[in-house]
Amino acid sequence: MIQEMRAAIFDLDGVIVDTAKYHFLAWKRLARELGFDFTESDNERLKGVSRIRSLEILLEIGGMTLDDETKSQLAVCKNNWYVEYISHMDASEVLPGAADYLRYIHSRGIGIALGSASRNAPLILERLGIEALFDVIVDGNKVSKAKPDPEVFLRAAAELNIPPAGCIVFEDAEAGIEAALRAGMGVIGVGKPSILYKADAVIAGLHQLVIITLT
Ligand code: BG6
Ligand code: MG
């Protein structure tokens, strides 16, 4: 249920920036090296999912079973490629309306946090030049339980010093919507209503809120 928004918690990948295309390139490259194909529709299954779980899904698609040691080596290899791709990003890749909406709600005294599963979040924020828009940053380096566990959002609320019921989460992944609901927060889905139907409301992107709130 959506109540008064005292704080807003934003997922990063798919809400602030479209990194899914770089994850896709890196996972596809790994699949090719392992001898099978990986499609864009397969990539949908990895959104919001942790790095190691993503690898497990990829191996499932390729019909492969590997030991933990090999899996962690492959995860490192995929991440090295991914980091190489995202290192070339710049401010032009911030999704439409995202920076304007964050500045707008900041001007209304609303606390702003990042709540991302990614361990690469600090690098991405630095490349996009938007770290300063967040009061609090909670990413995959700070939490031990992946979404749909609510840990990332509960920690963001605690660091903002706002009770969960006063927080609204912006999420593009089913696992993230589930995590926000389990945290007792309001949640706006960013993407398709057919996928994000559990959210309190669904928008196509933050640019829609800029039109509503700034006009
Ligand atoms: C999420 C992405 O935000 O972060 C997932 O939606 C990704 O696709 C996860 O697997 C972990 O990211 P990283 O950068 O730590 O590998
Ligand atoms: Mg996401």
What's the topology here?
Blueprint: E1 7-10, H1 20-34, H2 40-44, H3 51-61, H4 68-86, H5 98-107, E2 111-115, H6 121-128, E3 136-138, H7 151-160, E4 167-171, H8 174-182, E5 186-190, E6 201-203, H9 206-214
Parallel strand pairs: 1-2, 1-4, 2-3, 4-5, 5-6
Helix pairs in contact: 1-4, 3-4, 5-9
The structure holds 6-O-phosphono-beta-D-glucopyranose and magnesium ion.
General description of the model:
With 215 residues, the chain is an alpha/beta fold. It is built from 9 helices and 6 strands, in the order βαααααβαβαβαββα. Strands 3-2-1-4-5-6 form a 6-stranded parallel β-sheet, sandwiched between helices. The relative contact order is 0.18. It binds 6-O-phosphono-beta-D-glucopyranose and magnesium ion. The site of 6-O-phosphono-beta-D-glucopyranose (BG6) has 18 residues, from helix 3.
Features:
binds magnesium ion, alpha/beta, six-stranded parallel sheet, 215 residues
